[in-house]
Amino acid sequence: MHPSHRNKPSVTAVIQARMQSKRLPGKSMKEIAGKPLLAHVIERAKMMTGIGTVVVATCHDNEPIVALAASLGVQSYVGSESNVLERYYMAAQQAGGDYIVRITGDNPFTDVEYGAMAVEIAVETGADLSSITGIPLGTGVEVIKREALDTAYRENSTAYQREHVTPYIKEHAELFSVQRHPVLVKNPYKHMRLTVDTPEDYDFACRIYDALYKGEPFSIREVIEFIKENPELLNINSSVEQRPMTHSEQPDGK
Fold first, then answer.
1. Can you list the domains of the chain with their CATH numbers?
2. Which of 41, 79, 181, 193 has a CA 20 to 30 Å removed from the CA of 68?
3. Residues near 195 by beta carbon (within 8 Å), at least 6 away in sequence
4. Which pLDDT score is estimated for 120?
């Protein structure tokens, strides 16, 4: 980036987390390698170069999450359960930030290096929405320019736009600039799930963490090397179906 007289943009990570998941209730606080799942996500967010502030955006009746955030020295915001877009908007209002990094609390494999890369690309290009492509499910982040988040919050019109935060931006290419940066990861396991949405996913995550976690985040490359040595582990959650983006976790949702 060329030297500039302007101040460097501020970047805030907002981690969405709640206890009321339908497929694996209470997953945010389930232990993986001796720590709550969400603690690993927070740890990874705090280690991403370029991020100045970390906030956990949760909803009412989620006291364990608020307490965990406080114990790890990060802010929390308590808001709507179903309107995650509003939660992000209000968390950004509370914490500030020219760019907001969207991280989901069920992704304990969120990659520190690629997260930092997404932030760097966002700041360098000034794009409204930036992400890294070509990495496994559950390892990436989205970086949203604050003005774009504000517009999405004001203009959204459907339940899934409110639940998933960025669809409004993606669906209005005429209004926003979207930067998707592909990377080449030597990953022969294209269908590997590194997110925790079901008991099978949790079992899979525990097996990997028990083997690789030594007190600090490990990389996607280390996961892939471990799976090469233990390919049978992929059978644990290979049959789990990823919910489509348009799914809404309302009472009638699965």
1. 11-183 (3.90.550.10)
2. 193
3. 104, 106, 107, 109, 137, 138, 201
4. 97
